[in-house]
């Protein structure tokens, strides 16, 4: 069996075993290093072994939960680093809970965990970089696309760059009956093969791992028996919508159809206990952040007042009606970043270099300080930390008419930060709203505590490095 056909589960087992060995060695090396530097006395064998095992097991399990051992992980190397960072930090708290609270007899020196965690992160990043650049464990799956029409052209238009195709090897596109060739594929490799007679042999000869169904006309055109046989042989058969969702982290709204929504995974309704847990997590986190950021909020309010508040007699806070969960309206709170007469001619889309923004407003927008008052919206239960950004009623009414499935983003609470803001950070038109909706619906479909955590980590990075709007 060639490397490209190596079992995904076998590759995952090899990766788990390799990283478990690395984590265990590094965790033990951290204890030895502190001893060699005469910083601590080496603890007895049972204490060291217990903490090494807890670190190893917890990091591996959390790596598993964040998808780092997924055979078809579609994530750039930067995203893998983030997941490793999250996993190691969470493991730090697991070890602290294990040896500091549950089993105090296994408590290590206070410097042990802070030393082990950075070393584990560094070692895993180096190991993953080696894998990423050499394909030691994961060879790129070879795929073909059935279809060369309008639907198939979405891949050509939205995944033009090499980085967009870094996780797979696209062999080519197969023309299908009923395809709109005039408005379809323009600059891709076309595979002129008879799908009923030659496709099965082509799949075997070229070690194809996945078939993407992207034909414009499906009824009566797909080689069902060949696809059935391919599926039984372990070849993945994927709908275009699922493929784009997996590879781009968004849902192609303009290609959606009701049956796909009905039969697809995701869009799980939140049960009572999940909603209750989310409610208390959001409130607790909001209170913690509020207790830390109130000096920043006070300074910001004073700066806005000195800038133009005292002269115009306008409040430093800006209250605006927005649409929240289930289409209910609420008043969002923000620090005022625009001139008092910014909307004298009615509601307008904000633009990137908006002339209505004050000097102070530009700064607080860049670092998201203007959104700190929304902590009170979270405490009141009107918003969450993570979710689609709430829009104004005037725009929502327009967007529901012009953008398909736009109302479905209101199935969850709006948030201070969201998946769309990370992937499409600016929106000032109906077209932009359509693009952001693709990411919002991806979040609605896949919402989970893990996804929220990853969005939160990336948002903190944006805030710290001033990459905001």
Automatic annotation (TrEMBL):
It is found in: Membrane. Keywords: Membrane, Transferase, Transmembrane, Transmembrane helix. One of its GO terms (molecular function) is phosphotransferase activity, for other substituted phosphate groups. It holds the Pfam family Bac_transf. It is a multi-pass membrane protein. GO terms for cellular component: membrane. Residues 281-464 form the Bacterial sugar transferase domain. The chain crosses the membrane at residues 12-34, 46-68, 80-99, 111-131, 279-302. InterPro entries: Bact_transf, EPS_sugar_tfrase, Sugar_tfrase_EpsB_2. The keyword Transmembrane helix applies. NCBIfam families: EPS_sugtrans, EpsB_2. Belongs to the bacterial sugar transferase family. This is Sugar transferase. It comes from Agaribacter marinus.
């Amino acid at each position: 069996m060639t490397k490209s056909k190596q079992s995904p589960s076998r590759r995952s087992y090899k990766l788990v075993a390799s990283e478990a060995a690395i984590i265990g060695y590094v965790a033990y090396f951290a204890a030895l290093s502190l001893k060699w530097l005469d910083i601590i006395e080496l603890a007895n064998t049972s204490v060291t072994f217990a903490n090494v095992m807890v670190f190893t097991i917890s990091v591996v399990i959390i790596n598993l939960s964040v998808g780092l051992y997924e055979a078809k992980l579609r994530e750039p190397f930067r995203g893998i680093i983030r997941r490793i960072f999250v996993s190691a930090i969470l493991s730090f708290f697991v070890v602290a809970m294990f040896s500091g609270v549950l089993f105090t007899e296994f408590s290590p020196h206070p410097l042990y965990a802070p030393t082990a965690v950075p070393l584990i992160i560094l070692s895993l990043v180096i190991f993953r970089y080696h894998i990423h650049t050499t394909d030691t464990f994961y060879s790129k799956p070879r795929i073909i696309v059935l279809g060369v029409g309008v639907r198939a052209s979405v891949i050509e238009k939205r995944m033009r760059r090499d980085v967009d195709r870094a996780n797979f090897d696209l062999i080519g596109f197969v023309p299908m009956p009923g395809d709109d060739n005039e408005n379809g594929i323009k600059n891709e490799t076309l595979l002129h093969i008879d799908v009923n007679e030659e496709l099965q042999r082509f799949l075997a000869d070229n070690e194809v791992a996945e078939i993407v169904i992207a034909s414009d006309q499906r009824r009566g055109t797909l080689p069902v028996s060949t696809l059935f046989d391919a599926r039984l042989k372990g070849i993945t058969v994927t709908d275009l919508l699922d493929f784009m969702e997996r590879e781009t982290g968004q849902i192609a709204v303009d290609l959606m159809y009701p049956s796909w929504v009905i039969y697809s995974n995701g869009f799980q309704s939140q049960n009572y206990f999940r909603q209750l847990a989310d409610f208390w997590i959001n409130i607790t986190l909001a209170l913690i952040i509020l207790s830390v950021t109130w000096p920043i909020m006070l300074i910001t309010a004073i700066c806005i007042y000195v800038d133009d508040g005292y002269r115009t007699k306008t409040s430093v806070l800006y209250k605006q009606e927005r649409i929240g969960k289930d289409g209910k309206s609420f008043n969002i709170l923000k620090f005022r970043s625009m001139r008092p007469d910014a909307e004298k001619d009615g509601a307008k889309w904000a633009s990137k270099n908006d002339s209505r923004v004050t000097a102070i407003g530009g700064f607080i927008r860049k670092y998201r300080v203007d959104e700190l008052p929304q902590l009170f919206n979270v405490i009141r239960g009107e918003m969450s930390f993570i979710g689609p950004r709430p829009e104004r009623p005037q725009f929502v009414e327009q967007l529901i008419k012009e953008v398909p499935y736009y109302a479905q983003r209101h199935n969850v609470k709006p948030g201070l930060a969201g998946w769309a803001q990370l992937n499409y950070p600016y929106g000032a038109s109906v077209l932009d709203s359509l693009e952001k909706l693709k990411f919002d619906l991806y979040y609605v479909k896949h919402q989970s505590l893990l996804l929220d955590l990853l969005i939160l980590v990336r948002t903190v990075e944006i805030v710290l490095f001033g990459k905001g709007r």
